[in-house]
Write a structure and sequence with these properties.
The chain is α+β, with helices and mostly antiparallel strands and 394 residues long. The chain has helices at residues 3-26, 60-65, 130-149, 156-174, 179-188, 239-242, 370-385, and strands at residues 40-46, 54-58, 70-72, 74-77, 80-90, 95-98, 104-109, 117-118, 123-128, 194-198, 203-208, 215-216, 223-226, 230-238, 250-255, 263-274, 280-288, 299-306, 311-316, 321-322, 327-332, 337-349, 352-357, 364-366.
């Protein structure tokens, strides 16, 4: 074929393809042309309602040539999976800050580095505070007075001594001095220069802002302790999928550190806001973390298992030909003719898509080569009918 004819063929192909797209968008009926292309017999009018396009008769040889496969519309339970990415983070309900309620100086640190594991009741540091020394002396005096008046427990003096002793004990307890330490001071009868502060929780020290010899004051954060036996994964779910996500749904989480391994958890919370820029909403997945293998900051991939709620009419996704505003399929009639039928689609799960309207259970549709059928049926006769087109070359 000469260069001039090749260019002319290309122009015709582009023009006819544009006409095909326009015809689909308008939902009109395509005309027929007898161009002599083997295997095609184009009907002159549409079958059925006005939402169907011109029919196409396709013999077995032509169907084989362009790779046509058929599928039956059937009812199935769609187990849809929403996939997203997220980050492993702390369980905020298991974080404890350690801060003093009095002023003093650090004499010794027992937990002296970030990342150290601690247990509830374990010593954290020893603290010297003039206020603590004075409180110890008051406790010792109150205990002596109580012992002196205990011979007559019903007397007014004994009652006042008991009340004073309890008040001095409470004062030290409010400063987080352990009960065992308070008993030791009472029994010894002499104050100590320093007192020990203990950990209020078990976990890992994730923040530390104090050093030996430092002066501290009330409200200063000394340690942050996180219990990592349970962690969260905060994921971002696209706005179109947020309506499918519910609390307590099962979730599967994978991380790059452990390829091929899956961690299972549940959706603990769906946040009530959406990012305006990304059009996504946050979803929190809660996971047990035995062995502390999942570490805050890890990148995670999340799969949320969404129950479909019953059987739905579905076809393969490849059967759907979308034109922007409309979707349609090639329906195989009882006479073997292929008719374009407009459909309304719903949920998508894997390789299948729900049909809300346009088909019935048991209908046979083309599952592949939809575009080739449409292109061949629309363009073939147009090209052959062009005068002066010699496809054999010069």
């Amino acid at each position: 074929m000469s260069t001039k004819k090749q260019v002319l063929v290309s122009v015709v192909l582009v023009a006819v393809a544009g006409a095909v797209v326009a015809l689909v968008a308008l939902g009109g009926s395509g005309g027929s042309a007898d161009g002599g292309r083997q295997g095609h017999d184009h009907a002159a009018s549409s079958e059925g309602a006005g939402d169907e396009r011109s029919s196409v008769r396709l013999d077995a040889a032509a169907a084989h040539r362009i790779g046509v496969r058929y599928a039956i519309a059937e009812r199935k339970v769609l187990d849809r999976t929403v996939r997203t990415v997220g980050t492993v983070t702390y369980d905020e309900t298991r974080i404890t800050d350690v801060n003093p309620k009095i002023e003093g100086w650090i004499e010794r640190l027992y937990i002296d580095f970030t990342g150290a594991p601690v247990r509830r009741g374990q010593p954290l540091l020893t603290l010297y505070s003039p206020m603590l020394v004075s409180a110890q002396e008051e406790l010792i005096l109150a205990r002596r007075l109580f012992d002196e008046t205990s011979a007559d427990p019903q007397s007014r003096a004994a009652e006042r001594a008991r009340q004073l002793l309890e008040a001095t004990r409470r004062r030290l307890a409010y400063w987080d001095i352990p009960a065992g330490e308070i008993r030791r001071i009472e029994e010894a009868g002499t104050p100590t220069k320093t007192l020990t502060l203990i950990s209020p929780a078990s976990g890992i020290v994730v923040e530390k802002s104090v050093f030996a010899g430092a002066q501290i004051g009330p409200g200063m954060n000394l340690y942050r302790i996180a219990d990592l036996s349970t962690v969260w994964v905060d994921g971002e779910v696209f706005e179109k999928d947020l309506g499918l996500v519910r609390e307590d749904q099962p979730a599967r989480v994978t991380v790059q550190a452990y390829p091929g391994e899956t961690f299972r958890g549940t959706v603990a919370y769906v946040y009530p806001t959406v990012s305006v820029e990304a059009r996504t909403g946050r979803v929190r997945v809660e996971l047990a973390n035995p062995g502390l293998r999942l570490k805050p900051g890890m990148y995670a991939e999340v799969e949320l298992e969404i129950p479909s709620g019953g059987a739905r009419l579905v076809v393969p996704r490849g059967a759907i030909h979308a034109t922007g505003e409309r979707s349609w399929v090639f329906l195989q009639t009882s006479e073997g003719t292929l008719v374009a039928r407009e459909v309304t689609t719903g949920l998508v799960a894997g390789g299948e898509i729900e049909i809300l309207a346009g088909l019935e259970e048991g209908d046979s549709v083309v599952a592949s080569a939809n575009f080739l059928i449409d292109a061949e049926s629309s363009m073939g006769s147009a090209i052959d009918a062009m005068p002066g087109m010699d496809m054999e070359g010069d």
